[in-house]
Amino acid sequence: MDSNLTLTLEALASCGCVIPSEHRAGLDISLKIKKMDAGLQSLAFWGRIFTTTGKDYLLAEGCVSAKRIGRKLNFDLKYYFSQNGVQWLDLQAPLTEERYELCKQCKGPFTGDPSNKFFVIPEPPQPSEFDEMIEPALIGDKSGSSPTDEKGTTLEEEQPEPVTEDESTAPATEDEDASDEPPGVGEEAKVIEDEEVVEGEEGEEGEGEEIPKGTEVPELERLAALMKMVDEDCGVVPYNALVMTPANVLVKNTTFSGPKFIDELDSYCHLFKGYHEAPISKDLPGTWSIHAIPLQRDVIVRSLLWPGYFMYYSDTGKDYGSGYFGMGEKNKDIAFCVP
Amino acid sequence: MAAMSVEDALAYLKSMSTTTGDDVFTHISEIVRSVLQAKVRDPVDIFETSFVLKQTRFVSREGEKPIKEGRDPKDVIPVKSFFALFNQEEIVPKVEEEKPKKKEGEEGEEEEVAEEASAEEDEEAAGNEFEAQNMLSDSVFFDACGCGIGRLDTYFVILALKQLGDDPKFGIETVRFFGKFFGINDNYYVFESTLKEGAGEEEEVPEEEEEGSEGEGGGEGEEESGESKKKKGGWGRPSDGIPMEEGVGTNANVYWVCHRPGDQYKKLPPVTPLQINTARQLKKFLTGNLEAEVSGYPQFPGIEINYLRAQIARISHATQIAPSGYYSAADDEGGQTLTPAEDFEMPPAVDLGTLEAWVHKNAHIPKQGRCTKYEAPEEEGEGEEEEAPEEEEEAKEGEEGEKDEDEEPEEPEEEPGSLRTLDQDKELADGVKAWSVTYSSSIKGLKHQVVCLRSHLWPGAFCVATPTGFSNIYVGYGLKNEAFQPTMPPPVQKEYAGEMVEATDLPPKPEPLKEEEGEEKAGSEEEGEEEEE
């Protein structure tokens, strides 16, 4: 959401979050122009992705609306990128959940060539060890169910059919059995699609064919997915910095007087995962680093899961902001990295 | 609703809220007053003034926290180091006691004081002359290319460079800012220096003493200091027979570390080959505590201060680069020592925009963990045998991990030395170079562009070309960008393969000799008792 770009960059510069002077010079105005053109409520600088060709991506996120529907916070977000800090182009977020999953499986650094395509061989839907261990904890699921169950629920949040739930939790072999069951319990088409994908992969991996059956993922789609992923896993905002109006719209709290304890993880929340219900202290221990700079009373929160994600909160001005400055890859080795 | 007299109604409206102390009557009159004052066109539209009034009042109440005078005890040290960093005397608020002294002293003493101060300054200035990196100039180029640590932090570093260099007890010849490491609980600012001749040797001995005294000075009791000594020493740590390099290769420079510029600077101990090789097999975040244990497998031979030093060695040997031709290698020991070429002129930015135009300043660290090859004297065979099979395996895996850094580590003779061009570096993946080149501007034809190279193998390592030379910096977590393969523990040892035959014989009859021993023991006990008596 809205935060002061100048203050954010000033505070995060000590973390190595620096934008080249030329891009920085153009950024303030170019973002305003884009905001006008796109008719957005807010457009904020989001981060910088280091690419192998040196043509880095600058990213911005626009918010059309942030409303509460039922018990869930719904954000209508738009993603933009720029390679020179002047012209901002639209990013199309993955349209379906499957595409999003594919983007998550992309590996390797970004090239900086917007026409580049990543070649992804989709992994079997079996939850990896990492997902089992880390994902549920990140989601902060309070239910005491087993890790696999939790994984299932996270995947199926938007697909409430019981059949698919069973599939994702069960190993691939059981999936084949599941397809033999008479369809009609849930949505046939979806189930069958999933099966085909699974079978395809197994064939490739088992036989080791020369031309594996993979899917192309455009770099820009992955870029948008990356923003979504980092938002979901990080997206940190101080507790109470935003408030819900009676009309169920999330707005800036004009009387924000700062969290009570500035150097506690409880004071900072995942905006895109329920906000006040999802303080980052509920994440898996060891995935966050918080450091209060002595005398200055500035707090820097760093994600160790997404090295390069930094958030600052200044107790003097009650201002805050965050940014991602990295290679665009999740630290999957975090279990080995923490002391 | 029952009829209410005007008095009753007023009394009710004036009844104060128990939480805020407000009442409806004053609040409404305040609203009316503010609406009349504002005189906006459609007053009814801003009738939410009510809300605003309440909120502003609320904020003012929040602000009425008791204001403490003086400093938080935990801020005392940072304040002190802050003033010291800016070479300023700290102005202590309570100076009432000192004032009368000054009055008594009058001019004469003041002059003396001034003289003393200037003398001290002179001593300091004369105490150590050193060369420092032109960080102020470099930071402009870092900023232009989007790297570095920002203006404010940079200035702290500039002052820290002076503080380090000025101190005669450090004996620094040249000093530059190596970079900043993020730890989980604190950061490290690392400075790279070369010491004056003899300065290092002299300090070697007192350094150890200092360490010991620091442990004791921590005031955590003797047991604590004993533990810290154990930590620092090799007690219980894995070791191999390869000695560390002295003054060359991985230990050519001396590094200093502090949590914040102005804090106490700590000299990092020299790195051993085994530390480098073990660090290659680990992927750990720094904790921000130099005394912390480095957990993980294989066991790291040291504590975090050693791990940090090992990472610095790996980073500096993999990412410190210079324009081709800037240095010329002396021919001794395979071109280990570099001397700046005399007639070198910075090529234009266009020519520096290729990987061929840049060379590694430092040699690749071979799998031995030393840049200069160490050959064990005489008992080579024995040394190898002594190594446990696990260790050998570890070493092999270390080699594999190392392959990323450079091509062909198998043949030690072809191990890449210093001044090799960057385009020879191994690619991270198909077609993904380990380095990328960026310019300060994407506008073609813009004059005075700045070239910046950055490493993808060690994200956070940058090098910019400045008009007079170049400048390297590292800002990051100290993690290498590679798929981490944890070292597997050694295979479980095989069970005893021989046949287990139960002995049918009775156990041998105890020999009379033992009885004698028993008697002796008893005798000695008796003696002891006698002594006691």
From TrEMBL, chain A:
Subcellular localization: Cell projection, Kinocilium; Cytoplasm, Cytoskeleton, Flagellum axoneme
Domain of life: Eukaryota
Region Disordered, residue ranges: 138-217
Stored PANTHER family: MITOCHONDRIAL RIBOSOMAL PROTEIN S18 (PTHR22069), RADIAL SPOKE HEAD PROTEIN 9 HOMOLOG (PTHR22069:SF0)
Chief location: other
Protein name, entry field: Radial spoke head protein 9 homolog
Species assigned in the record: Sphagnum jensenii
UniProtKB keywords: Cell projection, Cilium, Cilium biogenesis/degradation, Cytoplasm, Cytoskeleton, Flagellum
TrEMBL record, chain B:
Subcellular location(s) of the protein: Cytoplasm, Cytoskeleton, Cilium axoneme
Pfam families: Radial_spoke (PF04712)
Keyword hit for Transferase: no
Biased composition (Acidic residues): 106-126, 200-225, 377-416
InterPro entries reported in the protein's UniProt record: Radial_spoke
Span list, region Disordered: 96-127, 197-246, 369-425, 502-533
Biased composition, class Basic and acidic residues, residue ranges: 96-105, 511-524
Alphabetized UniProt keyword annotations: Cell projection, Cilium, Cytoplasm, Cytoskeleton
Keyword Cytoplasm listed: yes
UniProt-recorded name of the protein: Uncharacterized protein
Upper taxonomic lineage: Eukaryota, Viridiplantae, Streptophyta, Embryophyta, Bryophyta
